[in-house]
Write a sequence for this structure.
């Protein structure tokens, strides 16, 4: 059999593809539109692997996606493809609607056409796994319980609203047409191959370049952080054993304020790459005007996936962050490649 992975040249999708090919002989056909956030160098470890086929296409390209289903007959789709940066969604929401909403809709329709023509036994085993975010649940107050799967959807940014819309489409394609879907909602990821516009890789690269480390507002926005390989292991587990039609929240039980994250990063850099002229990278921290509508706190209640599927994160924030910082120190060529704009 084969699985189809979309958004495979991005941060989390590429991690999932690498992990799948490491753990299994099953072929992967991977698709990516190679936007600014997707780069073939992110897939370089697996580009020559015979079990991996890369297709340069959008999830919204019905002809290309239909051709993949016809040619590769996947047993599952894992949908990572998305516009993913909140700041960009505030500046230009259109691309988020096109990919996250219209693109997911078209992918669902292609999957449904393919699935509905499968023999009954194969149709029953088919899965459409949609990868989503905790941001669809909105924001929490300091004493509120973490987001459970039953939490009301209250998205506050164009990004989270477009992801919420895609989650609803996936749900509807199950309830209306019977498509065997699974949805995962995960907290903030960090790790290797993260495009250097997001907080952790941006601060590592700015620190090394002697630039300011921008922290929004008072830096007290709280996020739950999960090492990317723990996220992709959770997705693999849900794909294997999740109940069709169910949603699984994935998180690391690691609530940290943004300022604490940046300070921890600086301490690690001070240890692993001390500043030539002495002093701490923390001296480069600069508070900047807060993002409009910035959610104050996200936290994930991951007890369902732990209880029902036996998944737990392997990394603590400390071990995962140390690995991440070391990876960026060792792979500055990758950062230069993906920020130089050629696919
Ligand atoms: P990313 O921006 O690094 O990667 C997204 C990939 O999708 C890129 O390679 C991009 O080229 C590709 N893409 C964009 N539009 C496309 C289209 N129309 N067709 C095909 N490919 C397209 O994002 P990521 O951090 O890897 O996130 C992957 C998924 O996980 C997203 O759906 C995101 O909402 C979700 N998620 C991310 C996080 C996080 O912390 N990064 C947390 C929870 C959920």
């Amino acid at each position: 059999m084969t699985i189809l992975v979309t958004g495979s040249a991005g941060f989390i999708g590429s991690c999932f593809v690498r992990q799948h090919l490491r753990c299994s002989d099953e072929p992967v056909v991977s698709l990516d539109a190679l936007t600014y956030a997707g780069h073939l160098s992110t897939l370089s470890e697996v580009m020559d692997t015979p079990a991996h086929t890369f297709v340069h296409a959008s999830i919204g390209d019905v002809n290309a996606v239909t051709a993949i289903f016809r040619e590769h007959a996947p047993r599952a789709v894992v949908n990572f493809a998305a516009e993913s940066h909140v700041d960009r969604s505030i500046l230009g929401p259109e691309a988020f609607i096109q990919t996250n909403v219209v693109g997911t809709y078209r992918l669902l329709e292609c999957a449904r056409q393919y699935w509905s023509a499968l023999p009954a036994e194969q149709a029953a085993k088919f899965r459409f796994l949609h990868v989503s975010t905790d941001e669809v649940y909105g924001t929490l107050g300091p004493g509120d319980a973490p987001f459970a799967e039953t939490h009301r959807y209250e998205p506050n940014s164009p990004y989270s609203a477009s992801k919420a819309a895609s989650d609803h489409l996936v749900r509807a394609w199950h309830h209306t047409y019977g498509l065997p879907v699974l949805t995962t909602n995960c907290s903030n990821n960090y790790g290797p191959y993260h495009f250097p516009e997001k907080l952790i890789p941006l601060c590592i690269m700015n620190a090394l370049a002697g630039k300011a480390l921008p922290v929004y507002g008072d830096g007290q926005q709280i996020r739950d952080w999960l090492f990317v390989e723990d996220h992709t292991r959770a997705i693999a587990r849900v794909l294997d054993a999740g109940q069709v039609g169910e949603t699984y929240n994935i998180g690391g039980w690691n609530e940290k304020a943004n300022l604490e994250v940046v300070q921890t990063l600086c301490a690690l850099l001070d240890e692993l790459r001390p500043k030539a002229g002495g002093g701490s990278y923390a001296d480069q921290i600069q508070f900047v005007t807060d993002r409009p509508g910035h959610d104050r706190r996200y936290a994930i209640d991951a007890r369902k996936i732990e209880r029902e599927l036996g998944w737990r994160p392997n990394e603590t924030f400390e071990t995962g962050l140390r690995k991440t910082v070391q990876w960026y120190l060792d792979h500055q060529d990758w950062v230069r490649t993906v920020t130089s704009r050629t696919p």
